[in-house]
From TrEMBL:
InterPro entries: 2-MeCitrate/Citrate_synth_II, Citrate_synth-like_lrg_a-sub, Citrate_synth-like_sm_a-sub, Citrate_synthase, Citrate_synthase_AS, Citrate_synthase_bac-typ, Citrate_synthase_sf. The active site is at 273, 324. It comes from Corynebacterium terpenotabidum Y-11. GO terms for cellular component: cytosol. It catalyses: oxaloacetate + acetyl-CoA + H2O = citrate + CoA + H(+). Pathway: Carbohydrate metabolism; tricarboxylic acid cycle. GO terms for biological process: carbohydrate metabolic process; tricarboxylic acid cycle. This is Citrate synthase.
Amino acid sequence: MSTAMSTEENIEIKKGLAGVVVDYTAVSKVVPETNSLTYRGYPVQELVANCTFEDVAYLLWNGELPTAEQRAAFEKTERSQREVPQALIDLIDGLPTDCHPMDVCRTAASWLGTQDPEADDRSGDGVRRIGLSLLAKMPTVVAYDMRRRHGQEFIAPDPERSIAENYLYMAFGDGEGSPATHEADVEAFDQSLTLYAEHSFNASTFTGRVIASTTSDTYSAVTGAIGALKGPLHGGANEAVMHNFLEVDDPDKAEAWVLDKADNKEKIMGFGHRVYKRGDSRVPSMEAAMRRTAANHDGQKWVDMYEKMQAAMDKRTGIQPNLDFPAGPTYYMLGIDIPFFTPIFVIARIVGWTAHIAEQNESNALIRPLSAYNGAAQRSVGA
Ligand code: COA
């Protein structure tokens, strides 16, 4: 991302705020030089290998991993809040089945705000309470939205299951073949949630912080963040990745497809990153989950395509895959409809967003940058 000088005022313009450090955060740290990402000091790979998504949510919100008692209390509270009011189900039923599921998520987040008399509680505890409530309810919304588009009945949340397993259960039931019944599928899905949970000042988190900085409420901040995440340059990339895999559909055609795109200077979704320039620290863990999922779902074809596209892209441009590149085919192999890939990202990132909103509120300054004017010179209506 280049910088440019404004001719009028001789000011350096940082397009896209690239390289601009706007605040401190204690939530996570990205070190592009070493491909490292830590949540509250813990390397994300270690969290994926040793902790559940629930542990990670607790960590991001509270700064420490939970003790056994804290975990039990946290899970109990989350599981008790998964039901959504019938009015929300009716609202979803009234939305078109051809609108993007991210529009449904955004509408649901906003609607839930109208039902919460404490929506304006901007204290740390208040924001974390809202974050937990949204984390509990959004999987119910997303799973039902997918089912209704197939003409299937609502499946109520099951408080005996983890967040990952419960989501897969609400989306697919627990009949034979449902990923909810396969430990390895639940684990891959759980790990993807951990990897998607937080990533410092990315576009949607920054959007949430901008809204919080006006002293608006947390639901408004999350609703705006969902809008930012929808874009294909951000969260929407995991869907675009799978469309590309399906377009290529043959590992033997993958290299030529990549080279053709590169020749035409077209962007390939799932590659590149604003911060990481030598590789995304989250990719190895997600790639391992993708390989395990492929082994269980006869998906070697997608792994072969993944490898060939990655190698061709590396050879031609040196640009490395980001998290969306292995996440897209993993979700596809689990049987999730492509338009629901980004809503799953929402479920995970609610944690990061609200951790940042709490931090913003604790040390707030209105976020309001400047611009350099390059429009018409001053003139008069009467002239
Ligand atoms: N495919 C092909 N070329 C890419 C590319 C991609 N995915 N990502 C970056 N590039 C190239 C650009 O064309 C540009 O080349 P140029 O200097 O010859 O014009 C150069 O790399 C810099 O890209 P730019 O878009 O300016 O960098 P950025 O920091 O603004 O981009 C992204 C970051 C994420 C927006 C960008 O890499 C992208 O669009 N990736 C695809 C979408 C995606 O996967 N998003 C998910 C991010 S987690």
